[in-house]
Amino acid sequence: MGRSRRTIPEELLLLALDPATGTTAQPQTLDLGLAGAQLVELALAGRIVPNGDRIAVVMPRPTGDPTLDHALELLRRRGSPVRAVSWIGGPRLGLRQTYLAHLERCGMVRAVPGQVCGVLPTTRYQASEESTNQAIKERLDAAIRTGVPPDPRTAALASLAHAVGLGKHLYPGNEGRSCRSRLRDLIRYDPMGGMVAHAVMDVQNGIPATQSRGTAARSASTGRRPAAVPAARGMARAAVR
Description:
single chain, three-stranded antiparallel beta sheet
């Protein structure tokens, strides 16, 4: 894949990084979002495809990105297509730390050691170039404010940012309410990103992977969560829209 372009998991984590505190917003859900972002990135790289409500590996050749290749290998070992909800909700917590270490190795962030209460050691992370983070944010801003349909990468990034709750971090307060609403609505522009974002929200809401969401196809066009929560058939329809 090369390193000329940042991956969606990298961009999602950089968006979540708070420059004032050196910590990440929404740490409870960010691992889920990163797992989903890996699926979207692998799909864009032609390694996986949606198969109904499942994800199927169609090209096991490595991408050259170690974190993505580890996810691809885990998917390959399953031997059969896996539900997006099952994959995202699987026991792979710790992706946030994995990606922070990855970004540090790539020179995108730098670790700043410190102490809590002057005793407990802690590590904060700062973006090496604030212009990088600003460029990512400006892409979302342009998609939100111009009304021009975004490219699939930006649409998927927006969908995942909404799914993990980064809207209030990126567009805080009452003045950011309309931007948060438009961020949510960008979910309609990338079927794969929309399916994965809904899967992330399903995991957060504790919806079983085998349950079906009958109104998900309609919600994919609006970005709103349905009142009923059957999941599998809705994700399948969202994947092929």
